[in-house]
Structure formats: structure tokens, C-alpha cells
Specification:
Elements lengths: L4 E6 L3 H16 L3 E2 L8 E6 L4 H16 L3 E6 H6 L3 H4 L5 E3 L7 H7 L4 E3 L5 H10 L10 E8 L10 H5 L3 E2 L2 H13 L4 E6 L20 H10 L6 E5 L8 H9 L6 E3 L7 H7 L5 H14 L4 E8 L6 H14 L3 E6 L17 H24 L5 E9 L6 E6 L4 E5 L9 E9 L3 E6 L1
Parallel strand pairs: 1-2, 1-3, 3-4, 4-5, 5-6, 7-9, 9-10, 11-12, 12-13, 16-18
Antiparallel strand pairs: 7-8, 14-15, 14-17, 15-16, 17-18
The protein binds 5'-deoxyadenosine (5AD) and iron/sulfur cluster (SF4).
């Protein structure tokens, strides 16, 4: 079989980043050669997202351009599953298309070289995850941080969200496999893992995660098991739902030095009326209670969130509820999205009645609020010493290091010489910006 020069472009979330890494490693193992520059690639795989229409258009547009440039082009990921056979109408001459749970089939498809091929892939969970287990970072990619997918799919069924349709039902990987994968990563030099799941605290709920038939909460137990791995310094996970913020989980945060005190807890709205319409299964008060319990553990516990503006029927009063919730929660960072109707979701049947200009205005208001709040939250840390993992030279200024504290806050300091990537160092914070902390080695 011929060796092919290839490149992967990744859109969307961390889940996609991890799947792209697996595909890359599998292609390299099959004898193909990864190249850096697009002009050197014969094959380009585009890993797509479809969570909002714009996200899908970006990936689809990119694939179309690459075909026009004469490449062999494959589309993988969430947009493939949404489009199904129509993918070849949207992208004429596309060579292959592979859904999110069929990524592991790409090396075979490329090896056979008979196009076009469509594999949407419904129930092919175990094979896919073997590929993950065998292809962690550190080996193929010298890195100190790695994503580890622990929970596939999502069973939450929020009214606006297409993810359950494209990523399928929840499937928790066996805990023993996850632990083995993390051990393997640590042997290759990884110091920090981020466990991935659309709603990761539902790990072990739909299917049994622990072989011994243990009936307690599966995710906190997984965290405790990983905490015991020598050489692993930090454990993160994303994303979470307030229902998963149990006493068990809080106890792990309290007991473990390695589990970082940061939680990405998407709220989506601060209005009880909109939360109910979205099918989020919590109220504003319940959400704020979860935040309060995290901060009671540690006032510097970092809580970040996602918000949707312009959901069908969202009034000015609803929007103001979101604003005030964000202030009450004191989010350390937030990501704001303009509502985008996704075909086949429940909310797509409702009129998309908030005008684009108004969605944009609400978006800008929340971003401006977050700038002020981020600055205020970060200023509290001036004068304190934070434990920071060295990630690499600062992109803005090569004479400085950049890293993150446990709260996922970016910290920048002057290079001293002694630090190496992956070290945990103590940095005294000297100045604060809304998104960055400046410091000096303590
Ligand atoms: N429109 C806008 N934003 C959405 N998100 C999910 N679905 C939609 C949609 N239809 C946002 C949510 C989620 C983030 C990943 O994307 O805020 O947390
Ligand atoms: Fe995008 Fe959601 Fe798919 Fe991630 S899981 S790539 S956010 S559609």
C-alpha cells in the first residue's frame, strides 16, 4: 500500500481534538506521513462540528476548498452524522465521510482508496475506544497534557442541542481501561489529564463502569483511582451538569491535591422560564447552590460557564436574569453563544424570534460584563502565590513562560532558566488582567 502525506484540520470541542489525535496516530501507524503544511499534504481530513450552524459551515466550507485544491479529502465528526448521505450533496466530490463513532475506520478507508465512502457508524463503540487507548499523547505527540475521553455521547436531550443526535447514547468506557490509558500516558511523560464527556459526571450512570459491580458513584471513584497514579500531577474534567455536583464529588475536591479546583459548569440561562423550556432540569436557585458549595470549599474555586443568548421567546427580562445570575455566580470565565436552531431538535420547531442584531447586542453585553468580572476576580489573586504548570513560552512574548494554575487561569512570568515544560512552579501574582495573571517566580 502507498504511503500518503496527510494533515488533519480540527473544528469543534476537545472531544474532536482527541478523536483527531487518535486518527493521526492510527494513520502514522499504518505507514502514512503527517505533514505540517497544507501544500505538502495529499490527503486532508477535516474533523467537523455541528453544534451551531456557523460551526458546521466552517468545516464544510474548508472541505470544499480543499477539494477545489485537488486534495483527497475526508470529512469526519459530528457534521457527517447530521448530514448523512446528503454530505455528498453539500460537498460534491468528497472522497470519504466518517461519523464521530467511526473515526477508527479511516486508516482502512484510506488504505483501500476506493471512494466515495460513507460510514456514519452507530454502535461501533468498543472498537473506537480501543483506538483511543492505544494512541494517547506523549508517544506520538510529545506533550505534558492530554485529553482522555471517558464518556461518549449524551442522554440529556436539552431542547436546543444536536449532540445526542450526532454523538449517540451515553457509553461509559470501563474504568479499568481509563486507568490503564492514563498510566500509559504518564509513562510517556504526561503530567495532566483532562477527562472528557459531554456531561462527564454521568459517567457510569447508563452503563456500569466498574467491573466489580460497585453501585456507588462511578465518577468520584474514578477520580480517586487516578489520584493514586504516581507521576500524574493534575486531573481536570469537562463538562459538568449541576446535578452531578454531589457530596461525593465535593469530597474528592476536598481530599485530592491533584484534582484541580476548576469546574466548567454550563448554565445556558439565568431565567427559570427559559431553563425549563430548554429542559435543563435545574432551577436558577439549584444552579447557584452548586456554585456556592464549590466556593465554600475554596473561595478561589474557578467556575466557568457557557451561555446561550436569544433562545426562542427570550425576553429582555429573561436576559436580565441571565446577567444577574452571572454576576451572582461570579464566573471566572464564560463563553457566550448566539442561539442557532439545529434541524431535528425540539427547539427548532419554535420560531427563532430574537433578531440577529438583538442576539449580537446581548452577546456583547455579557462579554463586557465578563471583562469587568474577570478583572475583579483576578485582582483578588494579586499578592498570592499560585501553583502553575509550565506549558511553554508565552505566545505574545517569548522571553516569558506561560502556564495555568489549578483554576485554569493563564499565568505569565519572566523566564528564569530553571523551569521546564511540565514542571509545577510557584508564581507570585503581581498584576491581573481579565483573562491573564502576571507574576514572578516565588
Ligand atoms: N445554539 C447556540 N449554542 C448552542 N450550544 C449548544 N447548542 C447550541 C445551539 N443550538 C452551546 C451551549 C453548549 C456549547 C458547547 O454550545 O452553550 O454548552
Ligand atoms: Fe461540536 Fe458538539 Fe460535536 Fe463537539 S460534540 S464537535 S461541540 S457538535
Amino acid at each position: 500500500m502507498n504511503s500518503v502525506k496527510f494533515l488533519i484540520h480540527t473544528y469543534g470541542c476537545q472531544m474532536n481534538v482527541r478523536d483527531s489525535e487518535a486518527v493521526e496516530a492510527l494513520l502514522v501507524r499504518a505507514g502514512h506521513v503527517r505533514v505540517e503544511r497544507e501544500e505538502d499534504a495529499e490527503l486532508v481530513v477535516v474533523n467537523s462540528c455541528t453544534v451551531r450552524q456557523k460551526a458546521e459551515e466552517k468545516a464544510v466550507g474548508k472541505a470544499g476548498n480543499l477539494i477545489a485544491a485537488g486534495k483527497i479529502v475526508g470529512l469526519m465528526g459530528c457534521a457527517v452524522k447530521r448530514l448523512g448521505p446528503d454530505v455528498f450533496k453539500r460537498i460534491p466530490k468528497l472522497h470519504f465521510a466518517v461519523g464521530p463513532r467511526a473515526f477508527w475506520m479511516i486508516p482502512r478507508i484510506v488504505g483501500e482508496g476506493r471512494y466515495p465512502v460513507l460510514e456514519t457508524g452507530d454502535d461501533m463503540v468498543p472498537q473506537g475506544m480501543d483506538a483511543h487507548a492505544e494512541t494517547g499523547r506523549g508517544g506520538t505527540f510529545a506533550a505534558v497534557q492530554s485529553y482522555v475521553t471517558v464518556l461518549l455521547g449524551c442522554d440529556n436531550r436539552c431542547s436546543y442541542c444536536i449532540v445526542p443526535d450526532v454523538r449517540g447514547h451515553e457509553y461509559s468506557r470501563p474504568a479499568e481501561d481509563v486507568v490503564a490509558e492514563v498510566r500509559c500516558l504518564v509513562e510517556r511523560g504526561v503530567k495532566e489529564v483532562c477527562l472528557l464527556g459531554q456531561s462527564v459526571l454521568r459517567y457510569g450512570v447508563r452503563n456500569q463502569a466498574w467491573e466489580d459491580g460497585w453501585r456507588g458513584e462511578a465518577f468520584p471513584r474514578l477520580l480517586r483511582a487516578l489520584d493514586g497514579i504516581d507521576g500524574l500531577e493534575r486531573i481536570r474534567f469537562t463538562s459538568a451538569h449541576p446535578k452531578g455536583c454531589t457530596d461525593e464529588l465535593l469530597a474528592v475536591y476536598r481530599d485530592s491535591r491533584k484534582v484541580c479546583r476548576h469546574l466548567h459548569l454550563p448554565v445556558q440561562s439565568g431565567s427559570d422560564r427559559i431553563l425549563a423550556a430548554m429542559g435543563r432540569r435545574y432551577t436558577r436557585a439549584e444552579y447557584l447552590d452548586a456554585v456556592r458549595r464549590l466556593r465554600a470549599l475554596d473561595p478561589e474555586f474557578a467556575v466557568t460557564t457557557d451561555v446561550i443568548v436569544g433562545y426562542p421567546g427570550e425576553t429582555e427580562a429573561d436576559f436580565e436574569e441571565t446577567r444577574s445570575l452571572m454576576e451572582e455566580a461570579g464566573f471566572d470565565n464564560s463563553f457566550v453563544f448566539k442561539y442557532s436552531p439545529r434541524p431535528g431538535t425540539r427547539s427548532a420547531a419554535l420560531p427563532d424570534d430574537v433578531p440577529t442584531s438583538e442576539k449580537e447586542r446581548r452577546n456583547q453585553v455579557l462579554l463586557a460584563d465578563q471583562e469587568v468580572r474577570g478583572q475583579r476576580r483576578n485582582e483578588r489573586l494579586v499578592g498570592t502565590v499560585r501553583e502553575v504548570m509550565v506549558e511553554g513560552p508565552s505566545k505574545r512574548n517569548e522571553s516569558r513562560w506561560s502556564g495555568r494554575d489549578g483554576g485554569n487561569r493563564i499565568v505569565v512570568w519572566d523566564r528564569d532558566g530553571g523551569e521546564r515544560v511540565g514542571d509545577l512552579v510557584k508564581v507570585r501574582i503581581t498584576a491581573a488582567h481579565p483573562q491573564t495573571l502576571i507574576g514572578e517566580l516565588a
